[in-house]
Amino acid sequence: MAAHVTSQADPRQWGAHEYFKGASNARTARRTGAGLRGFRGAARRVGVIDAGSSAPSPSPSPSSSALAPFRFPAFRAIWIANLASNMGSMIQSVAAAWLMTELTPSHQFVALVQASASIPIMLLGIFAGAIADNFDRRRVMLAAQSAMLVVSAALTVTTWVGAMSPVLLLCFTLAVGCGTALNAPAWQASVRLQVGHEHLPQAIALNTIAFNLARSVGPALGGLLISLTGPAPAFALNALSYVALILVLLRWRPTITPPKRTPILAAIATGMRFCAQSDPLRRILARGLVFGLGAASFQALLPSLVRDRLHGTEIVYGLCLAAFGAGSICAALGIGAMRRRWGSETVVGASALIFAAALIPVAVTRSLPLILLASFVTGAMWVSTLTTLNVAMQLRSPESILGRCLSIYQAVTFGGMALGAYLLGLVADLWSLPVALFAAAAWLALSAPALRIFAPMPGRNEGRVLP
User: Fold this and answer.
1) CATH classification of 68-252+261-454 is 1.20.1250.20, yes or no?
2) Beta-bridge partners for 4
3) Range among 59-68, 83-92, 278-287, 406-415 rated most confident
């Protein structure tokens, strides 16, 4: 996948007649189409699509339907495969976090499991963005997915033979994080090739739904699997989940123009210079950094919270993450309408304040129902913020340097999360878990009104390169 596209995504470039070969596979294509029509009907019943609206069409004319990108076979197949891969990743993340609680009592080591997944994005993400803009993005994604498959297989074997230690577990999560860092810019920049820019906000929201649908179901399944079999089978299941996405990417052949390659360091400098000179992008990056510092607290400290304050099991931990994911899905379904009604500034600022308020009961209570409710709320606010920032970044980044702009956004935001997870884990070790959660809540609550003044979100038409 290259940086320069000859045309907008065409649904015919990967139609059912091309992807599903043979009579039996043609029937599979028809069943897939019927399933999509059923999905749209269910969406109408819950109000996602207006019952009186016509079916979305992948024509150049924009559609307001939240499910319009599913009309593109390429997007649909990749979305399904990505859902399976995300499910495996969620199961592995639960297994790794809970395994760390069994290997060491240190809050900081437990929090570093979350940080180790974000640190590579901070350190390597900008290089990955330059790679995504200089090489075929599909091949970059294939390389990253294959590398994560190998690392996950090694993690499985090491755990199975009983050779795991806290430091070794962090090394494995760091290695998986490196694969994620390489994959993320190419993955996000490829969405335009799948649907075209007129459906870009809906496609980003649907990808967010896929991730958080996996986040809802995966942790609960992971907790149950760990309680029955231990962490090694959970790691093995994640290794297998990469296969589906690899196969789909191997069969996808988008129409592209070979990218004009530039030296990596020069390419990075171009992307950084553009972001530094663009006032709207600087403000988006500042919002991502500040939110990441405080919002990392919940997921980073949740395993210790379940173990030390709730005295729960891996199943309780999985349920808390499932509630977080359920809130994320609800927010992803409605975030487009909220942005149109209230604007990006109101959505991002209010989400930070509500996230801060939800951390208070987590810090003071030992009640599982209240923590599940707080998990749901924080999940909704997490997605409301990050989806809004992601859309704002993509709409203001030129296609030729899109991978680099997105990688800089990822590096800044996930760097904030990694730093926040480390610092808050340190605070929890030096003082207590409630003190760390109160500190995160105070940071979010105080920074939201300050950023509204000093780094407001760009207006609708401010700095846009896409209509």
Assistant:
1) yes
2) 257
3) 278-287
